[in-house]
Amino acid sequence: MSAAEPARDPIDLYVKAAERAKTEGVDTAPAALATSDARGRPSVRIILLRGVDRRGFVFYTNYGSRKARELTENSRAALVQHWPTLEEQIRVEGPVELADPQESDAYFAGRPRDSQIGAWASDQSNDLESRALLESRFREIEAKFDGKPVSRPPFWGGFRIVPERMEFWYGRAGRLHERLLYVKTTSGWKTSWLFP
User: In the structure, what pLDDT confidence band is assigned to residue 61 with cuts at 50, 70 and 90?
Assistant: First the structure.
């Protein structure tokens, strides 16, 4: 799908695209997130988007993870979602900020209990001596919270990419794809079509 008359706000266009994808049975949570460190060395990984609204795109992680460390050093990021069966791709670029603690608390409270305990047990992205150590830490945390709700670790929470640039790509025959670009300006969103 594309728009002869582009939507005025790319978030509206994104929400409609995600709803359409879900109707077609496409999981819209996975996205590739690109970050870079203070020296500009890039890295990319798959994350799960857990919230999209006018403020931006939210994902959650351990604040000690490689991605979080890189976002602290260089608070800009890019993500892409590719839905091959629909021949659609959406790219987002912009600065990154921490999600509100209340948002992180609410999301964490809704996670499966094993995932909550796992967040406490994992020293994400750091060297792991053995699998047995991770499993032992999991059991210790499990015992600590036995019979009690698992609180959110102070070292775990959300990041939000605040979009400044969004691109919607639609696959077309003969590689005559459609690319619709939105760039944030002081007066709103500027739209343009790009060559494929």
Answer: very high
